Amino acid sequence: MFPTLPVKEKSVYLHEALRELGLNIKEIIPLQGDGSARKFLRIKTPKESFILILPQPGEYGLREAQAYYRIGRFLKSHGIPVPDILAYRDQDGLLLVEDLGDLRLCEHPERERLYPEAVKILVNLQALTPRFPRETTLETLYYDRDLIWHKEILYFEKWYLKIHRKKTWFIETRSLLEDFLQESVDCFTDTVVLHRDFQSRNLMVKNGRLYVIDFQGARIGPPSYDLASLLWDPYVERIPTERLLDLYLRLTSRDRQTFLEEFKRISIFRLMQALGAFVKLSSQGKSWFRDYIPRAEKRLRKLLPSYLRKALFE
């Protein structure tokens, strides 16, 4: 299996695989990844360039690559702007995709102008819910109570509270969070397709247009989740949240009061997940994630009910 090969053999294997794909290689440039254990290489040929995605080690890496391929093809065929998938090798999980460049939405000097386009893409994604190929999901199909508890709340508790803050929560705090979670799940209004990480670093800008990447974790869940990921995104200091919320509600005709209650609660879970991820990734040598912890903390404190803010931060 490719990811487990020694470095020298991996290099030989990689060059042979690229030749089999018919590429005349001029240069291979490693790219900095984000929170994933996958590796990304820019493959330059005399005329153009591509991105080669190398799977993370193990069976999970192969399943992740397959999910990327299958979900990516579905999204592309239904008009969602994702990179073209030029080749996929099932035996080793290698993916060759369109090179969208290096400019992410969070780095764009006129990003505020592009945010409405991101909301429109999200609305179009959610409209695909009846046709979404549910058998392609990488992990659980649904973003539900169990996933929130284990992948967001307990993840936050382990990495942010225990490791970063050196704080242990009490049984009373756990009980408060369990009750808050159940109340939140009872507020969920609908189920739609989720990207699950719809934020500015996963929105590339090429020739003035937005493209969605890192969609292999797509599943089914509440409509506010991806919008919360976008509008409370810790990578960006100022986001026109109210204006974009209004745009989303106009485009979807959802009941404002009901949706905003769900949105606020989902935003809390999303920021918990982000804080856990920032601490974990910075502890794994990706120190730049530490820079985003204060902004995520500030936003989470703002959204939490006073009794939870006191239990978690005081």
Automatic annotation (TrEMBL):
Keyword Repeat: no
Matching Gene3D superfamilies: 3.90.1200.10, Phosphorylase Kinase, domain 1 (3.30.200.20)
GO MF terms held by the record: transferase activity
InterPro entries, alphabetized: AGP_Transferase, Aminoglycoside_PTrfase, Kinase-like_dom_sf
SUPFAM superfamilies in UniProt: Protein kinase-like (PK-like)
Keyword Transferase: yes
Domain of life according to the entry: Bacteria
Keywords carried by this UniProt record: Transferase
Aminoglycoside phosphotransferase domain mapped to chain residues: 28-246
Name under which the protein is recorded: Putative phosphotransferase
Organism: Thermosulfurimonas dismutans
Upper lineage: Bacteria, Pseudomonadati, Thermodesulfobacteriota, Thermodesulfobacteria, Thermodesulfobacteriales
